[in-house]
Design brief:
By secondary structure, this protein is an alpha/beta fold. It contains eleven helices and 15 strands. The chain has a seven-stranded mixed sheet, with helices on both faces. The chain has a four-stranded antiparallel sheet with strand order 11-12-15-14. Strands 1-13 form a two-stranded parallel sheet. The longest helix has 28 residues. The radius of gyration is 21 Å and the shape is globular. The termini are far apart. The mean pLDDT is 96.
Length: 394
């Protein structure tokens, strides 16, 4: 063909991390059809949707089957009832939002990848190791990314110390995927103060806020003074409410955010109106149910279930004297590979000797080499069996 293509795609890894993992696991399973593989790699949930969520979906489905209650295209920014549910949910953190600052979407991953549409050519600061969508979406758009090392020495929670310049776009995920590390108020405030001082924008990924157990760790960046002047927050119901297959999340763009004479909330609304047709009515009713106090309490029972799994894994590593972060305030456990192995060597070692699948840290960036991620999203039974197997080989 003689068309021109987006040459920036040449600058990203040819295989998405989790696609490579799936390929290796499939090849192993083909060669070892009797092996019982336990998957603690991809962060997909296993608990079913809660009673109130399912009830809301059934009711909404019935409404879609009657002419008098049928709904067509949803508003691109979301129905008011679910936007109001998000606003109400945030009051639990002491955060006051306006409905018009909340934009409902089909998940955090989409919004994290799409938010680059409203941004120009900026200095992009992203911690390493990192969830791949932050880097890949910027590279696909031709942006130059500067990686900020997150390592054992700084507890995988880098600070802005030593960073110069102005007008940065800064990605922060807390509790973090993949490391499980979470900023306390003092640590996150350093980034907020830096962003306000330098005229920078923070893209704050709070997808795992439901797993926070410690009172000194913010659930939302807007709990901190100055954050409304410098931060967009992106959250998801994927893990908190088990919506990985149901798909619903939201982005918060405060009215204060403005650049080059344009409000970022108006830009995001315009972007969504052009490129997005909204989340289905049935799903938005499910999200509304999940965000009610009663519905959220049900969801938190599933979160508690997963954190019990995390404690099983953490206890094993503590007993073995293996360094790790996460396992508390996070469904992820980030451990140093044993026996001096590289991340992918450790992946193959666990797969071949214990039939346990995790995620090589190197797949999240150079600073992840020598580390490995396990998730707590399996069943109790599968996690307990995985821990028993790992106990024999670590």
């Amino acid at each position: 063909m003689k068309i021109k293509i987006n040459e920036n795609f040449k600058n990203i890894a040819q295989s998405y991390l989790f696609s490579e993992i799936a390929h290796r696991v499939s090849a192993f399973q083909t060669e070892n059809p009797q092996a019982k593989i336990i998957r603690l790699g991809i962060g997909d949930v296993t608990r079913p949707l809660t009673r109130r969520v399912v009830g809301a979906m059934k009711k909404a489905s019935d409404e879609m089957g009657r002419a008098e209650t049928f709904r067509g295209y949803a508003p691109e920014h979301g129905y008011d009832f679910v936007r109001d549910a998000v606003v109400s949910h945030y009051t639990e953190f002491g955060v006051k939002l306006d409905r018009n600052e909340v934009f409902i979407s089909d998940g955090a991953k989409s919004d994290l990848g799409n938010i680059v549409d409203i941004l120009g050519t900026n200095s992009i600061l992203i911690p390493d190791p990192v969830y791949p969508v932050y880097v890949d979406s910027n590279v696909m758009s031709g942006r130059n990314v500067t990686l900020v090392p997150a390592c054992e020495e700084n507890g995988f929670l880098p600070s802005p110390d030593g960073i110069t310049g102005e007008g940065h776009v800064i990605y922060i995920c807390s509790p973090n995927n993949p490391t499980g590390a979470a900023y306390d108020r003092a640590g996150l405030s350093e980034w907020v103060d830096f962003a306000v001082r330098t005229g920078s924008l923070i893209i704050f990924d709070s997808a795992y806020e439901a797993f926070i157990e410690d009172g000194d760790i913010p659930h939302s960046i807007y709990e901190l003074d100055g954050a409304r002047e410098c931060a967009i927050e992106i959250c998801s119901l994927s893990k908190a409410a088990g919506f990985t297959g149901t798909r619903c999340g939201f982005t918060i763009v405060p009215a204060e955010l403005e650049a080059s004479g344009l409000k970022l909330s108006a830009m995001w609304e315009r972007r969504q109106a052009t490129k997005f047709n909204g989340v289905p009515y049935v799903i938005q009713r499910a999200a509304e149910a999940a965000l009610t106090p009663e519905g959220y309490a049900e969801c938190m029972e599933n979160v508690k279930y997963y954190m019990e799994n995390a404690k099983m894994i953490s206890s094993l590593l503590t007993g073995k004297g293996i360094f790790y972060t996460g396992g508390k305030n996070s469904p992820y456990i980030w451990l140093r590979c044993t026996r001096g192995m590289s991340s992918w060597e450790f992946f193959d070692y666990l797969l071949n000797t214990a039939n346990v699948v995790g995620t090589p840290g190197a797949g999240f960036g150079a600073q992840g080499e020598g580390f490995f991620r396990l998730t707590s999203f399996g069943t109790h039974e599968a996690t307990a069996e995985a821990v028993e197997r790992l106990d024999k080989i670590l």
